[in-house]
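Q: I'm writing up a methods section and want to include an example of the input and output format. Could you take the sequence below and give the corresponding predicted C-alpha cells, formatted cleanly so I can copy it straight into the document?
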Amino acid sequence: MTETPLLRPIGRRLFLGLSALGAGSLLFGHAVTGGDGEPGLLADLIGQNGFRIYTVAPIPTFDPATWRLALDGLVGRPLSLSYADLLAQPSVEQRGTFHCVTGWSVPNLVWQGVPLRALLDTVSPKPDAKAVVLYSSDGAYTDSLTLDQALTPDVLLAYNMNGQPLPLNQGLPVRLIVPEMYGYKSVKWVNRIELAPSAIDGYWEVRGYDRDAYLDKSGSRAPA
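A: Here is the clean output for your methods example:
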C-alpha cells in the first residue's frame, strides 16, 4: 500500500502543527487554531489505544435521553432514532484496521454497530438519491459517500469498539466506519444522514483531500 496521501498539504500542516505545539499542551487537549483563523484544526489530540484523536471543533456532549439520529432528504420514509432505538437494531461485529491518512494505523479493532445499508433500506431512498451526506453533532464536520459506496456491506454505523461503548472522543454515541477508506471518511458523532442527489466535498476534501478516499487506488469495491 502506498502512502501518497501523506504528501498532501493538509498532512504536512498537521505534522508541522504537532511539532510546534509540543506534547504538553496536546495531552491536556488545548484547542488549536489554524493560521487561517479556523477554530480547532486540531482541537484535541491525545493518544488512546494507538489512536491519535483529531477533532475540528469542541467535542460535543451526549445525552442518551435527548439524542436523535435523523435519516432524511430524498427518502420515502424519514426516520428518527433515539439511542435506545439504535441499540435495538440488528447489529453485526467486524474486525479490521483503522488507517489514518497522516500515516498511522490501529490493527485488530472490533467494531459493533448497524450496517448503513440496513437503515438506508428502511427509509426507501428515492430514485434521484445518489449519495448520502453525513453530519456530525460537533456542528462543523461533514462528509459524503455515493449511494453505491454507502451500500457496501461493511460500511457500519458503529456504537461499540472492542466490546465497549465508544469513548466520547471516538464518536459516542455513533460513528461511521468505512473500512476500505482512510479515516477522515469515518465521521464521528453522526446525528444526521441525508440522502442527496450527489456527493459533496466534506470538511477535509475542501482542504485538499480526495473525495474517494480508498486505501487501494487501483480499484473500488462494489456493493454486494
